[in-house]
Amino acid sequence: MEILRKIKLNGANLIALPVIAITKHPHHSEVSALIQILLIFTVVSIAPSILIMMTSFVRIVVVLSFLSTSMGTQNMPPNQVIIGLSLFLTFFVMAPVIGNIYHNAYIPYTNKKIGITQAYKRGVKPLKKFMLRQTRTKDLGLFVRMAKLKKIKSPQDVPMYVLVPAFVISELTTAFEISFLIYLPFLVIDLVVSSLLMSMGMMMLPPTMISLPFKLMLFVLVNGWYLVVGSLVQSFK
Predict the structure, then answer these.
(1) Which of 173, 175, 209, 237 has the fewest Cβ atoms nearer than 10 Å?
(2) Confidence of residue 208 (pLDDT cuts 50, 70, 90)
């Protein structure tokens, strides 16, 4: 509440100073609403980083990008299609984790059964469990040593700032291993076509023009999208 106070000096009014009286409001609903809005904006601002670095998105998008490169189809399918497919596959893989977080953390918090701290602990637990299943022990140990954490009794005790980079490099390693296996048959086709063209003296003809139809035919005959997407989804433990 603001009160105007006049200061008198030698009988003359000089200035009116605002005085702010702070009183404790009996209800904290406005304050809690502001905190919730602040938390929502914070989560929205870091949501892209959470989606990329703490889910299955990295492995899926890297493998699909390598698949497009190995086929030599010149950005076909377009990058927008690859990223869109990667997003929906990520939501498919992460659906059990998201459902666990929603039912065990978000719903009790919105019903005011638990506080924000307990909701965070409940929400992080299934996400950390998923990340630990995909993280190699060697990669996790590397960041634990660099962080100089000595009181770690189990992987569940590893803080998120240590687990996230270990999880990301493990995902990149797995993605490169899968991409290598996908790249091999297309590489063999390129080598065979290049050798045939060299033996026929057709050095000015780009080998990719001849090998591309054979790559597409091989990919269609073996039902490539079924195999690649199925293997990707099943690669998550």
Answers:
(1) 237
(2) confident
Q: What percent of the chain has pLDDT over 90?
A: 16
The closest of 209, 111, 13 to 102, measured between CA atoms, is 111
What is the C-alpha to C-alpha distance for residues 120 and 122, in angstroms, rounded to an integer? 5
Predicted local confidence at residue 92, as pLDDT: 93
Angle at 184 between CA 204 and CA 229, to 5 degrees: 120
Cα dihedral 193→197→198→201 (10° resolution): 180
Instruction: Give 75-114 pLDDT, tens digit per residue.
Output: 778 888 999 999 999 999 999 998 998 888 888 878 888 8
Residue 89 in contact with residue 56, Cβ under 8 Å?
Answer: yes
| Nearest Cα to Cα of residue 159 among 151, 137, 173 | 151
At which residue do the structure tokens 């200035």 appear?
A: 15
pLDDT winner (highest mean) among 131-135, 195-199, 200-204: 131-135
